[in-house]
Amino acid sequence: MREVALIIVGVLFLVPLFALVNVAFKPSNSRTSALELDFPPSVANFGLAWGQGALGGALINSFIVAVCSVLGVVVIAAFASYPLARITRRWSRLTFYLFIGGLLIPTQLGLLPLYVTMRDLGLLGTLGALILMNIGTQLPFSIFLYTTFMREMPLDYEEAALLDGCGPVRTFASVVFPLLRAVTGTVVILNSVSVWNEFFTPLLYLSGSGNTTAPVAIYNFVGQYVAQWPLVFAGLIITVLPILVLYFILQKHIIKGFAGGLKG
User: For the purposes of burial, counting CB atoms within 10 Å of the CB of 41, is it exposed (0-12), middle (13-18) or buried (19 or more)?
Assistant: First the structure.
């Protein structure tokens, strides 16, 4: 009975995915529903979505923002988490809880002051504004994962490195960080998905500039009175492929790193 229920749930989850792919391959003159197949399928929507939506440049911008944001999050969160995990003083635990408190504060509360700050810094319309925003919003959860994961790690290797004359920074960079592959993979994929799919922040900070990201570029196919759904769905398939490839590369680290983080 349980297996039957799981199969039914799986089918229900697959129906929207099937509709998305099916509509993306429909000919322009198709009048069938999203769940009806058309023969032969057409790939014209992918070419139109790529050309009309300028997805090439949008994907490059999304790639730059995602790589820089995730790299910044990994470096800052890992280095910040090391003393939080190893120092047992009261201020260290308090600082950790302050970071975790960032998970409870809606990003929307800071939209206006952050927008004014970006304007004063001259970053509006640039990818730098998105990178700074993404790093700030993704740090609390990443610090939570790194800190709780490191608290479960034994101290043997670090103590050996300190006895050999390594300082704290070198010990972390040469000994500790290589042992964080599992949680780093988790942090990379979770943050990459979040940054890659971010819509509102690019729409706000890149509005009026020549820069755009993939989600915003796809949104241009949706008008006030008409929506070009075949082009929207074709664009979604194009833009989701890079993140799917990254997920399949790092999937073996995700559950392991996430489970290790939850132990703390």
Answer: middle
Nearest to 131 by CA among 54, 75, 172: 75
Domain that holds residue 253: 60-262
Determine, yes or no, domain membership for 99.
yes
Q: How far apart are CA 92 and CA 88, in angstroms?
A: 6
31 assigned to some structural domain: no
100-155 per-position pLDDT tens digit: 888 888 777 778 888 888 889 888 889 999 999 999 999 999 999 999 888 888 88
This prediction's pTM: 0.85
Query: Is 26 inside a domain boundary?
Result: no
Fill in the amino acid letter for 189. Answer: I
| Three-state SS annotation for 22-43 | HHHCCCCCCCCCCCCCCCCCCC
The kind and range of the H/E element at 230 are helix 229-262
| Angle at 88 (CA atoms; ends 150, 94), nearest 5 degrees | 95
Instruction: Read off the pLDDT of residues 42-73 as tens digits, 9 standing for 90 and up.
Output: 888 898 889 888 888 999 999 999 999 999 99
